[in-house]
Amino acid sequence: MLEKLRNVFIGNPLKSAGESDEEHLLSKSQALAMLSSDALSSIAYGPEQVILVLTTISAAAIWWSLPIGLLVLVLLASLTISYQQVIHAYPKGGGAYMVSTENLSPSMGLIAGGSLLVDYMLTVAVSVSSGADAITSAFPAIKEFNLEISIVLVLILMFMNLRGLRESATSLMIPVYLFIVSILFLIGYGGIQIATGHLAYSATAHVGKVVPGVSLILLLRAFTSGSASLTGVEAISNAVPFFKKPKEKNAAGTLAIMSIILGVMFAGITFLNYWLGIMPSAHVTVLAQIAQKIFGDSAIGNALFYIFQLSTALILAVAANTGFSAFPMLSFNMAKNKYMPHLFMEKGARLGYSNGIITLAVGAIVLLCIFNGSTERLIPLYTIGVFIPFALSQTGMVIHWKRKFGKGYLKHSVANILGAIICYLIILILLIFRIGEIWPFFPIIVVLMILFYSIKSHYNNVAMQLRLTDDVKNIHYDGNTVLILVGNITQASIRAINYAKSIGQTVVAMHVSTLETREKDLEIEQEFKTYFPDVTFVNIESNYRDIVKPTMSFVQKMNQEAKKNNHTMTVIIPKFIPKHSWQNVLHNQMSLRLRARLRWYEDIIIATYSYHLKK
């Protein structure tokens, strides 16, 4: 039944042979939809974040958004060039994690990887909460259900990604390309109106006007806020293996296309906001106000406005998908290096890394619940989470070029050096001015680092203990002592005892009785001796109605006797299997409790004899 439900929601399993087929990998157009939605959707809130900081001083300070926007574009260009270099240098994916690990140190790699893992969860949380805000802005009556809507959006995206890469990418192409067309149309239409004199210049101040109160600190804060528009730029470098061949060329090309589109949209919206003198509002976003001004209030204008708002809501809702593609791939690379559980390397029925997808969804839902679905409270954590790996990857690439080209490395690393300086500056500004909002990120990273090293230590210890050495010898046993745990004399227990007699030289049946069931227990003992007069039956009384503890005590004594006789020790637990899985909840599951305790004893073999019921 569970398998049927899985096939309904996720789809029928795909053969492993199709794993490497081109049909299951992404083209550039599909990858742009799947891996760029996070970065592109930031246009909905990135430019507004700059205005929010500047207008704390004066509306006249809005003109500073133009040079700040230019600096953001410089950083975008630097990051694009750098991550294109990362794609060619590390075609197996891993992005900032691999670059930092190989060029800085494993610890720096773990900081980058841990930051990105958390940031991908924040990507999902921020995107769906922003999408929920857009939905509830259109329908105020459901505003109180923001959190519930966000959680539903996460679950929808999770199931889409569990169905597979192509299915997810194809589903996302419509909202992503609708948003791109909508924004570019808005910018183009606005530009035409400005050129023809139909859109009046309404800026609050001319460029270059001195505005009292504007300081370097304010401008730096505005720049860090605007840099939120660059989150998600690194996702393509983490997902190179998902591309069709030639993988590196297609991935680098997709990154270039995404960056050009993002740069044009950011520059266009920033300029239109300055030209129109738009001020932030608690009820209507800056982007929505720009659309209202440009489209007007005619019937066609209103229709265009609602289409635009729909495209914005959709892109914010699906922007989370960047995390669903990048998180599993990063988890795979970290698991391959033994810093995360190996289950993150396993592919699911649809050839996706299902465990990574599910873990991301659960983590995002937890964050949404902790912060009550508040986009405003999530964004500062989101920003610090992405700029730490940005800075480390840029630094790592400088080291990479130095190792590769020696003294001539500088001409190859100009973009990396510039990007690193800007990223470290952003981190410093966040630490100085927004520490009260970003501090939870650091204890989370510390906990993750401890977990990473603990997991690595565990795998190393396992490998060391299982490794074959020169002094390994074959061990000879003189026989097998078998203990069968008997609750009642049934078809299951009789067959289990017959099996025990076939594999053991010494066979003992054990039953635990209590004061309340003493008469029945005597009947069980007599019935047992009728069927198996040649098998030793031991009836142990439990004065505290506990079955597990006396069983463990007797097993230990039997194991000691087995060792004296140079025997192996096997414990057989009879268990009947109901026809329908739901019927398991009707039974006490004593066999599971016994197995859970027995597995901690050394040198004991635990066997379950399953008897399948027909109805």
Summarize the SSE layout with pairings.
Layout lengths: L1 H9 L17 H8 L1 H5 L4 H9 L10 H25 L5 H9 L2 H33 L7 H17 L2 H31 L20 H11 L8 H4 L8 H30 L9 H10 L3 H20 L2 H16 L17 H17 L4 H31 L8 H20 L1 H4 L2 H26 L12 E7 L5 H13 L2 E9 L3 H14 L4 E7 L5 H17 L2 E11 L12 H9 L5 E9 L3
Parallel strand pairs: 1-2, 1-4, 2-3, 4-5
Helix pairs in contact: 2-9, 2-12, 4-10, 5-10, 5-12, 5-17, 5-18, 6-7, 6-17, 7-8, 7-14, 7-15, 7-16, 7-17, 7-20, 8-9, 8-16, 9-12, 9-14, 10-18, 12-13, 13-14, 15-16, 17-18
GO molecular function, one term: transmembrane transporter activity
Protein name: APC family amino acid-polyamine-organocation transporter
Subcellular location: Membrane
> What structural class do you assign from the helix and strand content?
alpha/beta
**SSE series:** HHHHHHHHHHHHHHHHHHHHEHEHEHEHE
Shape: elongated
Proportion in β-strands = 5-15%
What is the fourth-level CATH superfamily of the largest domain?
Amino acid/polyamine transporter I
Q: Give me the CATH fold name of the largest domain.
A: Amino acid/polyamine transporter I
Number of domains: 2
Kindly state the percentage of residues in helix.
55-70%
- For the record, the CATH class of the largest domain is Mainly Alpha
Strand order of the largest sheet: 3-2-1-4-5
On the 0 to 100 scale, the average pLDDT is 85
Main sheet makeup: 5 strands, parallel
Span of the ends, CA to CA: 16 Å
Radius of gyration: 32 Å
